[in-house]
Design brief:
alpha/beta, EC 3.5.1.44, Rossmann fold, 7-stranded parallel sheet
């Protein structure tokens, strides 16, 4: 039986974290820890020896920088890597860099009450390892991509037009790929990416540096304007609302939906209600089904909707569910999504002017 189990190698300088991860992973029927390493130097030999399916990696380690190791690993032996990150500003910036280099996803390790905190995350860790084992290894987006990305032509639209995006595992880099080519006067964009509090601000700041549009972590009651992308803060649901003639963002700490807060379904549902055919909905890579029902609601309210295709998804979970439910008016490769979004926005504008 053990031959079919997911083989995991845990790399962490903390013996406590190594022990807790081992306990969590070995308690699952379908996975096992084949080896643990206190640093990347020890990990290199263990990778050759055990050929693991997934690596868990703490980036902040003494003997060798985790990011250097990850960069080398993705170049020489690409494999699914789940980051184990501290919930600090510095930790969140390092984690985002790791995702950029090709890490698949991350789990946040608690700063206090580590044992109880890690055990609370046990199911999430196991689920993310399963998704990682099934995923396609992802090499970093080449740096030369950024300047080479052609700016898309801006559609002739009113400030009524909106683009609504939801993503999970693999989504940080997918969102970057979607936003980077957009012109500075693109329609307003609202984004829910599954992420814990503390990470979304760093994520928004990083995108803001890379994109022509302004990207920020949204605040409650903020007016939604063209040329801006608004990212849901970790641990708060983002909804679209109306205030007179304007769109505004609303945040709340209601119960998790599909075990997520922020939830993509919450955002898509509000867009269906308040924007209808003025919106374009986009569901990107991610595990689970959050957003599938909401995308169908958006489509039924008159919105054009896009699901990312299987070939370009890191994890084809949320888009697969959305397609199966009939929520997607079209399915597109990641690189084609920015152009399709802008075409659909322009087409809906023309249809309304005719």
């Amino acid at each position: 039986m053990s031959a079919s189990k997911i083989k995991v190698l845990c790399v962490d300088d903390s013996a406590l974290i190594r022990d807790l991860l081992t306990e969590i992973i070995n308690s699952q029927p379908d996975m096992e820890v084949v080896a643990v390493a206190p640093d990347p130097i020890a990990a290199r030999d263990l990778i050759k020896q055990h050929n693991p399916d997934v690596l868990t990696l703490d980036v902040e380690m003494p003997r060798m920088d985790g990011l250097d190791f990850l960069e080398r690993l993705m170049r020489l032996r690409p494999m699914p890597v789940l980051m184990v990150s501290s919930l600090t500003q510095a930790g969140s910036e390092i984690t985002l860099r790791a995702l950029e280099l090709g890490a698949l996803d991350f789990v946040a390790k608690p700063s206090l009450g580590i044992r109880n905190g890690m055990m609370e995350y046990a199911n999430e860790i196991a689920e993310k390892l399963r998704a990682a084992a099934r995923s396609r290894p992802r090499q970093a987006l080449p740096k030369k991509n950024a300047p080479a990305r052609k700016e898309l032509a801006a559609p002739l639209t009113s400030s009524e037009k909106l683009i609504i995006i939801g993503a999970s595992t693999g989504g940080t880099e997918a969102i970057r790929s979607v936003l980077e080519p957009l012109p500075a006067n693109a329609p307003a964009i609202l984004i829910t990416q599954h992420m814990p509090g503390g990470f979304t601000r760093s994520f928004a700041e990083r995108l803001d540096r890379l994109c022509r549009i302004s990207v920020k972590e949204v605040t409650d009651g903020e007016r939604v304007l063209p040329g801006h992308a608004y990212i849901a803060p970790g641990d708060q649901h983002l909804e679209l609302a109306r205030s007179g003639a304007n769109y505004v963002a609303r945040l709340n700490t209601g119960p998790p939906v599909n075990r997520h807060r922020p939830s993509v379904d919450v955002l898509f549902h509000s867009a269906a209600q308040h924007a209808g055919k003025n919106a374009v909905g986009v569901i990107l890579t991610g595990m689970g089904k959050d957003g599938a029902k909401g995308l169908l609601e958006m489509r039924e309210a008159g919105a054009a909707t896009i699901a990312q295709n299987e070939e370009t998804c890191v994890v084809f979970g949320m888009p697969r569910e959305a397609i199966a439910m009939g929520g997607a008016t079209e399915v597109a490769a990641l690189d084609d999504i920015p152009g399709r979004m802008m075409s659909l926005v322009a087409a809906s504008g023309r249809a309304q002017r005719v």
